[in-house]
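Narrative progress, year one. The postdoctoral researcher (J.K.) led the effort to move from monomer predictions toward full complexes, under supervision of the PI. The following entry was the first complex the group processed end to end, covering 711 residues in total.
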Amino acid sequence: MLVCLAVCFLLNISLGSVHIPVGDIASSLSGGQAGKNSWEIIIWNYRLPKAITAILVGMGLSISGLLMQTLFRNPLAGPYVLGLSSGASLGVAFIILGSGLLPSFLSVFFLSSYGIVLASCLGSLMVLLAVLVVSQRLRDTMAILIVGLMFGSFTSAIIGVLSYFSTAEELQKFTFWSLGSLGNLSWTNILILSVCCLIGLLLSALCIKPLNALLLGERYAKSLGINFKKTRLIIIIATSLLAGSITAFAGPIAFIGLAVPHISKMVFQTSSHYILFWGTLLFGAIILLVCDTVSQMPGNDFTLPINAITSIVGAPIVVWLLVRKRKFMI
Amino acid sequence: MKSFLSKYSLFLLLLFAVACKKNEPDSSGISEAKTQNSIRYAKGFEIYKYENFSIVKVSNPWPEANKTFTYVLHKKGVSLPDSLKNYTSLQVPVKSIVVTSTTHIPSLEMLGVENTLLGFPDTNLISSEKTRKLIDTGKVTEIGANQSLNTERLIDLDPDVLVGYSSGSDTKTYDNLQKSGLKVFFNGDWMEESPLGKAEWIKFFGALYGMDEKADLLFTEVETAYKEATELAKKAKTKPTVLSGAIYKEQWYMPRGNSWAASFLKDANAAYLWADSEGTGSLALSFETVMEKAENVDFWIGPAQFTTFKEMVESNPNYAHFKAFKDKNIYSFSSKKGKTGGILYYELASNRPDLILKDLIRILHPELLPDYELYIFEKLK
């Protein structure tokens, strides 16, 4: 799979609307010169950051999906479906659209990349906690899904109200943020994103063993000597860190978090997180790289929105899951 | 926003229809009338003047409009021939008006009739000080935002005429208003693709106010100034390369070779890099394509909504790789705003192409207009 990831990575970098010979790409990446200066810029400042972002986003979202599916013991959980992404949007909306109300020294901080990441993480954390509270009362899969959906509409309604009261400039800023994109991150932003993702992924890696126990139920996990509360806390922090920071930089991206864990479950035919964790991690990166390559349509001037591609891949999987829900064992 | 809409515009050339009408008696059978269409550049409307009335035909108020709107303007007490009774008729000069696009405001002001304006949707978009005063004193009523007009308030205002614009064939609100007895005239200035064609729409308003001659005169002034500026630009010794537009939703929107924006660049004697692209409206390009072609571009004119270099790199750090960015040769039309945030360009540009062209000449060939001060464009900060 690592080989496959490397191939996808190279494929992603070598394909795009401008045709750049493979030789030039290789020489440019290995520190030499590409045939043209503009090619150099395209490779180093557009394609490479985009590919790295795709890998980070793919990994982060997939893992946060896996964590949520196990935590809720619900095959349909995922950051997008349960409204975490919309929660993150709400956090950012409060900051960008409400920046006029904050004292100036605070608004300077909050409008920087760090502030937006923080707000976005807090937003998704809030939604996650809310869903968690509701899910303890309602054990039904469908109910939790509907609750997630409701949170989604609720947050978008609040954003609608906020945008009504904000100035055209603030609104424009927010619209541009909410469109999201894998392709316009600077290297500094990528660094912040990588740090957040790395912490999130490390935290989740710590939970692999307890996660396996959780599959068998809360009580069983406790009887194995696992500190359930602590595990749950770590999972929640990791999930909101991953979903929040990714949404902050790349905008809401649909279905990856939901679909990838299932794909790796299907491929590996296991429910052990020792394997699933790494499988999901790599699959997430590969699938988002492929989606991004497809969205660029090599040799074409069309750039399809990444969300359209991930939804085309993800939506059928959700339907398929619902159809065979009865047989489904998590 | 109209500039976005115009991207989707397709143009049905109506020259043929115009040519057929020339010097022929109108089907209404009024033989002694002067039946020549008095519109020279605009392709979306025609005016035929007769003794006691005139006929205004608007043929292209939105993309792929398949219907021509015919309006009959007559003086008080004139009885119209039966053949014209099916059309919307209006007694001129009108004493009160509601317009729906900021591009209509300069026409009213140039004709000196801005005090007849009763209502406007989203009055904050209006920048002109003259009209702003009227808004501040409550003489102009807010009638809703953009194309979602407040029907009740409009009926209550009861203007002599409502000049509407629509981005598509869905005109339910206007149809409703028409049923309630309001006279709705569609204005298609935003569909015009030539600088002088857009400006000629002042004659549409001239006809409404019975000020045809004044409108003709005002337009001729603009036309002369525009042509003089074009001649001046031809004297330039250099032909700098120009890039335009910016990225929106992963796509770089670049005006096509025959579009309104590209016509200005051509007349300003610039080497617009996409001048060869066919058609009107905009191309949607990927960042990579633009980067490869325009890396060493001299000037960047109209980078969408951006007004500072900082905003640009925050939105997309790759903007900084263009030569025009490094040399700080980026000029925006989004900086000059009215008190309430309306962008001057969206209001004035269609009526005053001469100012736009002079601005561009000053930017691209400063030696030709050494003492001229930029009116609409501004260098990015």
